[in-house]
Design brief:
36% strand
Length: 249
Amino acid sequence: MRALWMAAALGAASLAHAADGARPAQEVRAQLTPKRFTTLAAEVGAKVQSLPVPEGGFFKSGQTLVQFDCGVQQAQLQKAKAAQAAAEATLKATTRLSELNSAGALELEIAQTEAAKARADVSFNSLLLGKCHVVAPFAGRVSEQKVREQQYVQPGQTLLEIIDDSTLELEFIAPSSWMGFLKVNSPFEIRIDETGRSYPAAVLRTAAKVDAVSQSVKYVGVIKGRFPDLVAGMSGRVIVAAPPANPVK
């Protein structure tokens, strides 16, 4: 894709000549990308109980996207809590005996250590149980489901691909000479192949340096407005009208 953009940038085609002597409008290729995207993976080994949001569905930040059947983890937490209660009772009794000089310093230290271990086990199992539902880190859409309900997954296994397409961005490679007139916030248009329509856009940011070999620079733009017919992955032609080559004085 980068090679395609580079070739398009270096050989930008003329579209039309303005009557006032303006340089011809030029175009390069670009693809729409979501504002944010990520892959969600399992952190526990368990069976998928439910997938509340279907593929292509919308979700809010903090909403549950995957719910696991964590009966085993729940039982382990209850066991850890019972062990903690026993360790705390032993520590309390040993502390009292130590105050009465009926228990040595070593016995008290061992009781304190066992109580600390029991508390750590409860914390660990509570944390593990909290991994039994996967929540959305941001509002967006499910772009792809990698698992199905009742499927057993392993820790680290991919569950979902999610995107935030509330704002669509686009990247393109243009001749470095464009930096003279195409700057941050400069408006331009992109004509999307899939819809056959043109949409308003603006430059969001530029690369930190120019590629000296190809004399090109990377731009990142953003679609101005919300258009239901646009989705991430679509591609098209960035159309930029350059200023006049010989301004009329």
